[in-house]
Structures are given as structure tokens and as C-alpha cells.
Write a structure and sequence with these properties.
The protein has 212 residues and is α/β, with parallel strands linked by helices. Helix content is 33%, strand content 25%. It has an 8-stranded mixed beta sheet, covered by helices on one side. The chain starts with a strand and ends with a strand.
């Protein structure tokens, strides 16, 4: 059984999607812990209801990022994870922390990377008038939102779209591709090779989702 630790800062809707998929599809893995840097993260309640151990490491208690990351790393490593999953974890992680989990830490970003890294991705997409927008699952590297791409989903941008409407459609697709990518990893069908994500050949057609 592979061990997964999930990090959240709020509701953690992608965490919910992963937990539900893991239980429904009987993955060869267990969610060993859900850890948050905020005690008021509502996703902690969901995890507890599903029998998953939860922990809070308040980032506000640590004066530097290095100190917080060291404490977080210690708590993660106590669960001996094969994979660390960032699911709305709103922290910029230090290079030593990221390097420690190289090849075994995934993130999802609400844009078609490399376009629109950082925050306010839906606002950025609407501002420049792109016709397609979406989400990307990627391996985490020290460069923010620039890791090797695992899977992407795209949705059309409508003429009357608001940020909220576009975000909702993108989030629906996040809940499709993120559990899928995590399952690939725990089944040994996804790995990091150099600067690229390597997928088993049979998965090539599943790594891109187009929603109409």
C-alpha cells in the first residue's frame, strides 16, 4: 500500500475528490494524513469524517519560511509518504523542502501551464481573451507553477464568462484529472524522469481532457 499525505489550507475540494476516488476505486494506497497550515481549514472536518488523521501546523507560529518548512517536513515524514499532494495549499515552499520530495510531490494549478502561473488565473485569462482555459497537474519544482506537466484539462472561455463562472467549470475538471493523476502515481504508472513526467504508454490518451 502506498502512503499519501495531502496538504490543504482551506476547503480542499481537490482533497475531497481524491479521497472519494481512492475509496470508491479501492486504490492500492492509503491517505495517511491531511495536514493544514490553518486551524480553520474546513477540509480538516471532511478528512476526519472519513477516518483520516488530521494535523495542523500553523504557519503563523513560525517567523520564517525555512522554520515552517522544517516543521512541516518533519510531520510529513513521520507518515513515510510515497507521495505528497498539494490541494489548495497556499504556501510558497522553499527549495530544500521541494528538493526533498522531488519526484513525489504533485500540485494542481488552475490554468493551462505555462500560461498564467501564480494567482488570479481566471482574471488573467479573461483579461487577455484566451479562447481556452483550464487546469494542469504537475510535479512540483522550486520554480513556482513550472514543474513537469502530468495532465491537463481545458474548457472553452465563453463571451459572457465571469471569473466565478469560469472558475467553477475549471474546478469541475480539476476534480477529474487530479484524482486520475494521483492514482497513476500510486499504481506505478507515473514517474518523474529528468525534466519530464513519464506516463505509461496506455495513459497517453487520458492525460488531456477537453470539456465542451
Amino acid at each position: 500500500m502506498r502512503s499519501i499525505v495531502i496538504l490543504i489550507s482551506g476547503r480542499g475540494s481537490n482533497m475531497e475528490a481524491i479521497v472519494r476516488a481512492a475509496q470508491a476505486e479501492q486504490w492500492p494506497a492509503r491517505i495517511s494524513a491531511v495536514i493544514s497550515n490553518r486551524a480553520d481549514a474546513s477540509g480538516l472536518e471532511f478528512a476526519a469524517r472519513h477516518g483520516i488523521p488530521t494535523e495542523v501546523i500553523p504557519s503563523k507560529d513560525y517567523p520564517t519560511r525555512d522554520q515552517f518548512d522544517a516543521a512541516l517536513r518533519a510531520r510529513i515524514d513521520a507518515h513515510a509518504p510515497d507521495l505528497v499532494v498539494l490541494a489548495g495549499f497556499m504556501r510558497i515552499l522553499t527549495t530544500p523542502f521541494v528538493d526533498h520530495y522531488r519526484g513525489r510531490m504533485l500540485n494542481i494549478h488552475p490554468s493551462l501551464l505555462p500560461s498564467f502561473p501564480g494567482l488570479a488565473t481566471h482574471r488573467q485569462a479573461l483579461a487577455v481573451g484566451v479562447k481556452l482555459h483550464g487546469a494542469t497537474v504537475h510535479f512540483v519544482t522550486p520554480d513556482l507553477d513550472h514543474g513537469p506537466i502530468v495532465a491537463q484539462a481545458c474548457v472553452p472561455v465563453r463571451e459572457d464568462d465571469s471569473e466565478e463562472a469560469l472558475a467553477e467549470r475549471v474546478l469541475e475538471q480539476e476534480h477529474v484529472i487530479y484524482p486520475r493523476a494521483v492514482r497513476w502515481f500510486v499504481e506505478g504508472r507515473l514517474a518523474l524522469e529528468g525534466a519530464r513526467a513519464r506516463l505509461a504508454p496506455a495513459l497517453a490518451g487520458e492525460a488531456a481532457v477537453v470539456a465542451i
